[in-house]
Sequence to fold (422 residues):
Amino acid sequence: MKNTVIPIAGVVSLWAALFATPVTAVELTIACGAVGLERQVCIDGANRWAQQTGHSVDVIATPQSSTERLAMYQLLLRERHNTVDVFQIDVIWPGLLGEYLLDLSPYVPDSSAFFPNLMANNTVDDRLIAMPWYVDTGLLYYREDLLEQYGHPVPQTWNELEAIATDVQRGERSQNGNFWGYVWQGNDYEGLTCNVMEWLVSNNGGTVVDASGVVTLDNDRASDIIGQAASWIDTISPPAVLDYQEEDARAHFEAGNALFMRNWPYAWRLANEPESKVAGKVGVTVLPRGETGAPSGALGGWQLAVTQATRYPNLSVDLVRFLTSEGEQRRRAEFGYLPTRTALYQEAELTRDNAVFAPVGQALENVAVRPSSATGRTYKYVSRYLSGEVHEVLRGNKAAPEALASITDRIVERGLGELQRP
Fold:
């Protein structure tokens, strides 16, 4: 028998080949990224984890509609299916889905690298049921050229925004009858809830329902800021803003017909596309504060969670840790997916080419968290009461104190919160 001599380098390569793949490789399944870039970036991250571990990941298709996606998730989780191990969940779903999801606390002993408010949002009944993956928050977009032309600074407070918008609107109307000072999302839907939360938190007006289940809405600071927002209709904001959602506000702003706009970070790149009439003339900053509060922005974004029914809890959590790691978040930031780790907002190479990084980081320090974790499955009712009643105030059909008292009564009567005891 002929002996074959393998060089040392060959022995090392053979050894690496034998042990690079685990004895039993498994396939995990993750539900993330509905279409296009979002889906591809998710696939790329999952593939990097698979290459490092020797396992594989199947990225399944999910509906584009978040409502349809939630219905799909609820079916799988309630029936304890193990066909999906890791779920990408919306920021307002932890309280709704938490009972079906694995407690990640034992696997994430140090969560200090993430924004505290994001971790608090994902904690339900002292259980960390999801890790923050990427984040959105409301921001203020403005016309840099017009502020310079009229000699105004970027507004720091809502009162300053009102005064500046009034002045510039008056000046621009002589050449553009469609020009308004401020556009935002005033339709009766979840987007109005986000705006309302920003107004409340920026003016120390409470969080509607706090973490202990107490309704904090019926107070003078909340009433003042809601009343102030109502005064914008047909003064610095068009009456049509009562029907506006995100894309309506963006279309109005990009047509050159507004000085200020409230929108999410996605609008930055689009406002500077060649087809935008305001490309190269746009600035972005944190939303204004009330006279006694601090700048804020409604918390949006997506998290990663593991089902309790998974056959591979350790591997599933490892995939979540990898996808939310600093390296992965840095890579995803290049495609506009804003990190949930505080340190990345200090990196010049990331912030230099994306103007939304600094204001998002500032907003997250005092982020407006919708009371979804506090109210769990019943959040949809709280949000419906809030947007519906405030919409009536904006339309001029109710006074702010009356609407806030009505929202409070409806929340308490339905058992979704309790009044503050003396």
Residues 1-22 have pLDDT under 50 and may be disordered. The longest helix spans residues 36-53. The chain is about 40% helix and 15% strand.
